[in-house]
């Protein structure tokens, strides 16, 4: 007898809910990279240079706010243990689940990503309607989610792994073991870089990063 799957109706084909819309800006640039590689810093510099930037990490936080459908779906599958006393998602608890069970991680992504896509789609349509021709979209799990065909060009930020782990342990108060396990759940940075059109090597200080992003910005303006 076949065993009952632990998590029902989950493993949909990656990215199959994603379709480009004719109502999006003409050029959509995906910005991705490893955990703590510097994606948001690059996104911030680009937004200072007047590129509209959508941060899908922020959207992923918004779609699991109390009362939102994605949070209800997560609770239905993982139980109320993933909630704090005040009803918000316990991110640390969720990360623990994700790091100990690859199917659970896939399920969490399959629940959250369609909601993120829907919000991103709405924002892209609004940006196009207000006359924007080019938009940067920061998507940490761009390749893992199978979103690569949504973008005209993809930029990857790559940073040395020990630096990323150090940032994670300092910033998120995470153990080295947890930080390394989290990084291991993602496609290696060098693979992401190979699959990208442009690569930012964030292996020096912020001044050096700024120089590279300035160069990228010039390229993007002339696409
Ligand atoms: P996450 O995966 O957690 O979303 P991220 O890839 O968006 O992270 P950032 O938040 O941009 O990474 O950077 C992580 C931290 O490292 C931030 O505190 C940022 O200020 C710092 N940082 C990034 N690049 C550099 C650099 N070249 N020199 C010094 N600090 C940096």
Q: State the separation between the terminal residues, measured CA to CA.
A: 57 Å
Tell me the number of structural domains. Answer: 2
What is the total tally of β strands? 5
Average pLDDT number = 91
Share of residues in helices: 40-55%
- Global morphology: globular
Oligomeric category: single chain
- As a percent range, the share of strand residues is 5-15%
Q: Structural class given helices, strands, pairing?
A: alpha/beta
CATH class of the largest domain: Alpha Beta
Describe the sheet with the most strands.
Answer: 5 strands, parallel
Helix/strand order: EHEHHHHEEHHHEH
Bound small molecules, by name, code or SMILES, are: adenosine-5'-triphosphate
What is the tally of helical segments?
9
Low-confidence runs: 1-13
Q: Indicate the CATH topology of the largest domain.
A: Rossmann fold
Walkthrough of the structure:
The relative contact order is 0.22. A 5-stranded parallel β-sheet has the order 2-3-1-4-5, sandwiched between helices. It contains 9 helices and 5 strands; from the N terminus they run βαβααααββαααβα. It is an alpha/beta fold. It folds into 2 domains: 26-52 and 134-223, 3-Layer(aba) Sandwich (Rossmann fold), CATH 3.40.50; 58-131, Rossmann fold (3-Layer(aba) Sandwich), CATH 3.40.50. It has helices spanning 39-48, 56-62, 69-78, 91-100, 102-129, 161-171, 176-184, 189-194, 206-221; strands spanning 27-33, 53-55, 134-138, 153-158, 198-201. The chain is 48% helix and 11% strand. Bound molecules: adenosine-5'-triphosphate.
């Amino acid at each position: 007898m076949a065993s009952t799957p632990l998590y029902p109706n989950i493993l949909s084909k990656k990215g199959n809910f994603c379709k480009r819309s004719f109502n999006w800006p003409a050029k959509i640039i995906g910005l991705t990279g490893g955990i703590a590689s510097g994606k948001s810093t690059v996104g911030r510099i680009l937004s200072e240079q007047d590129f509209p930037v959508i941060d899908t990490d922020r959207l992923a936080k918004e779609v699991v706010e109390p009362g939102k459908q994605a949070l209800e779906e997560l609770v239905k599958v993982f139980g109320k243990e993933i909630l704090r006393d005040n009803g918000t998602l316990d991110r640390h608890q969720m990360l623990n689940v994700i790091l100990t069970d690859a199917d659970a991680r896939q399920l969490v992504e399959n629940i959250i990503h369609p909601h993120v896509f829907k919000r991103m789609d709405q924002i892209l349509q609004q940006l196009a309607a207000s006359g924007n021709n080019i938009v940067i979209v920061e998507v940490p799990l761009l390749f893992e989610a199978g979103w690569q065909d949504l973008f005209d060009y993809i930029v990857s930020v790559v940073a040395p792994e020990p630096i990323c782990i150090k940032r994670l342990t300092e910033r998120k108060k995470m153990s080295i073991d947890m930080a390394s396990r989290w990084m291991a759940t993602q496609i290696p940075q060098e693979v992401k870089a190979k699959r990208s059109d442009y690569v930012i090597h964030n292996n020096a200080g912020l001044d050096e990063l700024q120089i590279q992003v300035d160069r990228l910005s010039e390229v993007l303006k002339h696409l």
